[in-house]
Write a structure and sequence with these properties.
- The chain is an all-alpha fold and about 325 residues long.
- It has 15 helices and no strands.
- Helix 1 crosses helix 15, helix 3 packs parallel to helix 7 and helix 3 crosses helix 11.
- The relative contact order is 0.12.
- Keywords: Cell membrane, Membrane, Transmembrane, Transmembrane helix, Transport.
- It holds the Pfam family BPD_transp_1.
- It is found in: Cell membrane.
Length: about 325
Amino acid sequence: MGKEIAEARYYRKKREQQKLFDLLYVIFRSLLIIGISFIIIYPIIQKIAVAFKDKADIYNPTIYMIPVNFTWENLTMAMSILDYFPMLGKTLVFVVVTTLFTAASCALAGYGFARFNFPGNRILFGVVIITILVPTTTLMLPYYLHFKNFDFLGIIGLFNGKSGVNLINTYWPSIITSATAIGLKAGLFIYIFRQFFKGLPKEIEEAAFIDGAGGIQTFFRIMLPNAIPPMITVVLFCFVWQYNDTFYTTLFMSGMELMSLKVATLPSQADQFIPVLMGYSHSSGFKADPNHVAMVVDTGILLAILPLLALYLVVQRYFVESIERSGIVG
């Protein structure tokens, strides 16, 4: 009897210790997640707070995050300097077009590498992988010279005797590179599609071939509808990277009105235009407060990333599912 009571006490003590350990683990895990989440979203929270903070709040040491003097002035100034809505519209049209071209061309290339055995298949795919590793800055000069005197197979020079057409400061370099699967991060997207198509059973295509479908018809009517997960992944990655890209846009379209270029020059433009927006002329010699300029710049950056934040909130569930189903995580 005494032994049974001792065993009962022992097991009750073990259960209590296990409950205490589980509780401490939950607390530790929650604190860790909250801490990491705070580090990640802190810059966004800070920019939101700055966007609605008045100039008078800058020099108030008691104000840390929540503004005391609420104002819309920073938002209106940042929108005026950025010419926000017209430029956002142009940027979205450009990004959507290049994203669709990139997704289509990379899907076709990935399908070819996955399903067709031709001489040099492995070597060419190795070259594709190398393009992921090679820094894009090393390709700057060849890309620039190619589109500075663009002449496809020498056809233009054959007819007019000149060196080619200058496509710099037009949308064409980005459109051409996107449509031919050599654009921004194209090697990674081809790899994603190839791995997905290799994982699909060949019986699907064989059934289509038996029914009389050709290679192109099988791709568009059978394989592509099954490639929704990698398609969503590639479209979202491509959209975000293209929207934020400053390398190709600076190289090919330095004179175009795009959000990434405008944000890159926002500090100098804010310093120049804030006195005008405050009612002072250029000849007055008035200089804007550097801290006020920094507030407007932070607000402009917040406005620039708002479309991406909205996109993520809408499609986050599909994005996570597509990552899991496309096989990227192994």
